Amino acid sequence: MNKLFIYTTLIVLIVLNYSCKTTKNNINKIITKKDTIINVVQSINDSVKAVESIVKKFKAHYIDFKTFNAKIKVDYEDSKGKQPDITANVRIIKDSAIWISLSATFLNVEVFRIYVNKDSIILLNKQQKEVQYRSLDYLQEVTEIPFDYKTLQDLLIGNPIFLDSTIVALKKTNEATLLSSLGNYFKHLVSLSNDNYLLMHSKLDDIDISRSRTAALTYSGYENKDGINFSTHREIVVSEKNKLDIKLNYKSYDFNKELSVAFNVPKNYKRK
After folding, report:
1. What pairing do the DSSP bridges indicate for beta strands 130-135 and 270-271?
2. What is the rounded distance in angstroms from the CA atom of residue 230 to the CA atom of residue 219?
3. 205 touches 187 (CB < 8 A)
4. Which of 60, 75, 167, 205 supports an S-S bond with 187, CB 3.0-4.6 Å?
């Protein structure tokens, strides 16, 4: 599988943040001695109730929808420097299909078209007139990331990803409310705004300390549209051997409008 396919897909899938440091160490760097910290593992009933209350308020912001479409300006920079800007047009039918068109912004020429369902991904290279078919399982093996359709859907919509239900710590600082979860794959540190518990920052650490991959996801530019709090500016910084910095600027977006995700493969395209 060529590297271009992986990168093109992962610009949309956007990978994750893993580091060798434990979540506890990450939290201790952020807070001071006077900050409030509740260790849920050793908590009393009141502490558990405090965590449950905050998680409930946080989850009230989860975006539920039927359809979604957006135009996104994608800026990204890798070890070779800043790359040409990309415009992504995204259409989603919840829990069914994701349709993505990627164009070179300065030329206004479509370069790739991607179709994702719960089992597979199809990539059209419009310039080379080639088509690739890949399963989500295959991409998991190549990238060594346990993502699935729902993860990609949540990532594009703005819902938190890889947030396990097992909350092991809660912290309140002057700047944010911090939740830490521990799952089978990741340790996850989430920063929420203190006033309304909107998602501000997401940091994931790989349970496997032998890996040195890191990622940080930042959410800002919130707008309330039809009762939905939506982050219009996102930044994803991924580091392993090299660093990848991706900025997503949602220029326009709509929920629950009628749309089509029809995806046709031209007969003259070669299978790769």
Report:
1. parallel
2. 9
3. yes
4. 205
DSSP states of 192-225: E-TTT--EEEEEEEES-TT---EEEEEEEEEEEE
Q: What is the pLDDT of residues 215-256, one digit of tens each?
A: 789 999 999 998 999 999 999 888 767 778 899 999 999 999
Distances (CA, A) of 139 to 1, 6, 10, 74, 76: 9, 8, 10, 22, 21
CA atoms within a 13 Å half-sphere pointing along the CA-CB vector of 38: 19
Say which amino acid occupies 100: I
Sorted by where each begins, the domain ranges of the chain are 14-255
Q: Which residues on adjacent β-strands are paired with residue 114?
A: 100, 123
pTM for the predicted model, two decimal places: 0.82
Which ranges of the chain would DSSP assign to H, the alpha helix?
3-13, 23-30, 45-59, 136-143, 149-157
pLDDT digits (tens, 9 = 90+) for 93-115: 999 999 999 998 888 899 999 99
Q: What is the CATH number that goes with domain 14-255?
A: 2.50.20.10
